[in-house]
Specification:
alpha/beta; Arylsulfatase, C-terminal domain; 2 domains; 10-stranded mixed sheet; 4-stranded antiparallel sheet
Length: 470
């Protein structure tokens, strides 16, 4: 498995201009005018929120199914750009977040095989995002940004993998999901206290983010605000309890909506809204529970490679720069966040292979998607590939129920109900060729194959007497 030299990578970041970074910076300067400082960048991530769980995305599956009221997110979309085909790179927490912060499919950064990084990390895990990887925070820090991570981390809790060793100046949050016990509340490397089994954290995380940004409004900053909601167990402050027509889950989402609005209000009050790009999305699809979230009109949800597992709501907001009320139907992915943010910051890209692209022209100029093919990886298995409107799913016997090989036309059939492979053998052959090329690079656990471009996941091996908890 190829190794990478972190020191060389960071040196490359400081000295070498990346093509995507140069293109994005040019677009930024053209839009904002010369002499303007790089924008503040805010990335808000929810946990297990369905595509259909925001008012501006909502489609009723039947006349009895109520919408969750999200007036502030709806306003954010009305003032910015809403994406209808935004994909995350995995349908569960840890690999999705690894991809988001590195611009790489999970197997490329080691989250695809058993050596500590197969699936979701937990309090006993020895794995984590390798400190040899260059994160979005490190890219921006090299460009002079102050950086902070607030909320759920879930990329390794041992010292080498913590946010403060991955490019963030500070961290305030939880090391793993809010259903994993014990659950510590952590500031940087210090545990502040143990949290109860149903913690209410949305308001605290949002206010901490607002406070941190208010102290840095004169210089460019990057805020990664990763809410632990609406991951179960659901818990909500009294002011939101019983307010939603979708039960406790809906109450939680309406609370998130309120605090996203509070953050946008704070940026306006601080006078930096027109210098700040805010992106809102979710890490993967919803937990499919009768009282939980909805990915309608898509099939499946969390942990699936169906569209409901990996297609997330996504809103981009930058008053005065992004067009208001625009809907982008081109494919944009979480892998594109790092190169797009780097471009806007004028920051060179890492010198290792990435899977994302600068999506700024798609958002602002109506350019076609730079993603020619999108690959659906789950626990190292290449379970599907999409190109254009067609998606080929590969047979996965270990799924329950087993997934058969089938071709779907996502434009005509977003619910993936009808196999059209017999009518399009040329499309099947093309997608099989795309998949085979990717297997050579990133492997495929379905076939027991490793790829030539996979990098190692981090493994913690403590020295005698070294603590193992935050």
């Amino acid at each position: 498995m190829p190794s990478i030299d972190r020191r060389a990578l960071l040196g490359g970041l400081a000295a070498v201009g990346g093509l995507a970074g140069a293109a994005g910076l040019g677009a930024f300067l053209q839009a904002r005018g010369p002499g303007r400082r790089p924008p503040n960048l805010v990335l808000i991530l929810t946990d297990d929120q369905g595509y259909n769980d925001i008012g501006c995305y909502f489609t009723a599956p039947d006349e009895t199914y109520a919408a969750i009221r999200t007036p502030r997110l709806d306003q954010m979309a009305a003032e910015g750009v809403r994406l209808s085909q935004f994909y995350v790179a995995a349908s569960v927490c840890t690999p999705s977040r690894a991809a988001l912060l590195t611009g790489c499919y999970p197997p490329r950064v080691g989250f695809g095989h058993k050596e500590g990084g197969l699936g979701v990390l937990h309090p006993r895990s020895v794995g984590g995002l390798s400190p040899d990887e260059v994160t979005l925070a490190e890219v921006l820090k090299q460009a002079g940004y102050a950086t902070a991570c607030i909320g759920k981390w879930h990329l390794g809790h041992h010292p080498p993998f913590r946010p403060t060793n991955q490019g963030f100046d500070s961290f305030f949050g939880i090391p793993w999901s809010n259903n994993q016990q014990p659950l510590p509340l952590v500031h940087n490397d210090k545990t502040l206290r143990e949290l109860p089994e149903e913690p209410i954290l949305v308001g605290q995380f949002a206010q901490s983010a607002i406070n941190w940004m208010s102290r840095r409004k004169d210089d460019p900053f990057f805020m990664y605000l990763a809410f632990s909601a609406p991951h179960e167990p659901w818990a909500v402050a009294k002011r939101f309890a019983g307010q939603s027509e979708r039960g406790l889950y809906g109450d939680v989402i309406e609370g998130v909506d309120h605090y996203v609005g509070a953050l946008l209000d704070a940026l306006r009050a601080q006078g930096v809204a027109e210098d700040t790009l805010v992106v809102f999305t979710s890490d993967n699809g919803p937990w499919l529970h009768p009282e939980g979230g909805s990915a309608y009109p898509f099939r499946g949800g969390k942990a699936d490679s169906w569209e409901g597992g990996v297609r997330s709501p996504c809103i981009w907001w930058w008053p005065g720069t992004l067009p208001a009320g625009k809907v982008v139907d081109e494919v944009v992915t979480a892998l594109d966040i790092l190169p797009t943010f780097a471009g806007l910051a004028g920051a060179p890209l890492p010198t290792v292979p990435l899977d994302g692209h600068d999506a700024w022209p798609v958002l602002t100029e109506g350019a076609p998607s730079p993603t020619e093919a999108f690959f659906y990886y789950a626990r190292g298995r290449l379970e599907g590939v999409r190109k254009g409107k067609f998606k080929l799913m590969f047979p996965v016997e270990l799924r329950s129920p087993p997934v058969p090989k089938a071709l779907y036309d996502l434009e005509a059939d977003p619910g993936e109900t009808t196999d059209v492979s017999a009518a399009h053998p040329d499309v099947v052959a093309d997608l099989e060729a795309e998949a085979e090329a990717m297997r050579g690079k990133l492997g495929d656990a379905l076939e027991g194959r490793r790829g030539s471009e996979e990098r190692a996941v981090g493994i913690f091996r403590p020295a005698p007497g070294e603590p193992e908890a935050p």
